[in-house]
Amino acid sequence: MNNFEFKNPTKIIFGKDSIAKITEEIPTNANVLLLYGGGSIKKNGIYNQVKTALKNFEVTDFGGIPANPEYAILMDALQVIKDKNITYLLAVGGGSVIDGTKFLAAVAVYKGETPWDILTQNIKTEKGMPFGTVLTLPATGSEMNSGAVITREETKEKLAMGGPGLFPQFSILDPQVVKSIPQRQLANGLADAFTHVLEQYMTYSVDAKLQDRFAESILQTLIEIAPTVLNDTFEYKAASNFMWSCTMALNGLIQKGVPTDWAIHAMGHELTALYGIDHARTLAILTESHYQFNFESKKEKLAQYAERVWNINEGTVDEKAHAGIKKTTAFFKSIGINTKLSDYTNDYEGTAEEIAKRFTSRGWLGLGEHQSLSPDKVKEIVEMAY
Q1: Is the pLDDT of residue 55 over 90?
Q2: Segments making up each domain of the chain, as ranges
Q3: Considering the domain 11-176 in this protein, what is its CATH number?
Q4: Which of 8, 35, 320, 378 could bond to 303 as cystine, CB 3.0-4.6 Å?
């Protein structure tokens, strides 16, 4: 196992009717900016629960943060923070709202001239404006980590940021919110969490037995509960396991002491930036081709995954590894997610070249756990996903 340091300061408040506990977590003199998305929280009752909990605070609303948090809209929110002398941020939503809030927490204290530089220059935020979250869509794990991804429509870019100052102070996880989530978003959440685990697991062994089994247990749980989560009838136990699995998939724990990949995410972000494809679905598009292209360097771990997660115990290492890849693609399809770029757009010719060109211009010359995926190799992987 590799050396590591681990600190996660986010307080998790999990369970039924926990939204009311917001009152106990925000400083009594706080001037709060309440951030949310397209307004679904006003239809499902979550907004009213939050406003009731905040009745003794000074609160300003800012809605309309889109599914891929848009830089221009977030800059409007930044102006509200300045004009209203906001001192605390509260994100009520899924990963996009929470990511947007992290960006605001960073830029609210940023001393540079251009906030976008935080993303293009990979500036780490050591201390941001304090914020908390109320999770309404399990998927990204953003409620318990310090990373974020922001989109800029003007330049068709989607870039990551983060830093130790961007952990939520608290996050409220009430599984009851799952009952109002559309099936498409539930499927996205399952695929997103599943791929988050794979990015931290599907590399090569460093004999981190516990980390491997942590990762495998999350994958097994997601596979087991997926049919129930996607069923039209809400089931609280399945929703609870779904929500906590998504959080555990990306709160930093399972990546400690092991090599990680993240090339699928780097490529997937470009598909979202170029075509507006749901983030989780871009990951499903690229997973099989990525593993096939990097088969020799990943096959030992792929075979372990096939054995432990999918109970494939017969065959050679190569045979098990190939079976594991096929099972992964089948899982995505079983939850209603297509796995080829051509399923989403007819205008895919030239996509691989464009992504490779972007990576070259940014200096991203070696992705993956071995830093071996040069832009020309990225081009091949994306082409395989057409």
Answers
A1: yes
A2: 11-176, 182-384
A3: 3.40.50.1970
A4: 320
The pTM of this model reads 0.95
d(CA 174, CA 134): 8
Model confidence pLDDT, tens digit, residues 68-101: 999 999 999 999 999 999 999 999 999 999 999 9
Interatomic CA distance for residues 246 and 251, integer angstroms = 9
Phi, psi of 373, deg, nearest 5: -90, 95
* 97 in Cβ contact with 39 (< 8 Å): no
Q: What is the average per-residue pLDDT within 189-217? A: 98
DSSP alpha helix (H) spans, the chain? 22-25, 40-43, 46-53, 71-83, 95-107, 117-120, 183-201, 209-229, 236-249, 263-275, 279-293, 295-310, 317-334, 351-362, 375-384
CA separation for the pair 300, 204 (Å, rounded): 7
Q: Which string of b and e fits 78-112 if b means at least 16 CB within 10 Å?
A: beebeeeebbbbbbbbbbbbbbbbbbbbbbbebee
Q: Report whether 268 contacts 261 (CB < 8 A).
A: no
Q: Tell me if residue 78 falls in helix, strand or coil.
A: helix
The token duo for 304 is 């372990």
Query: Which CATH number applies to 182-384?
Result: 1.20.1090.10
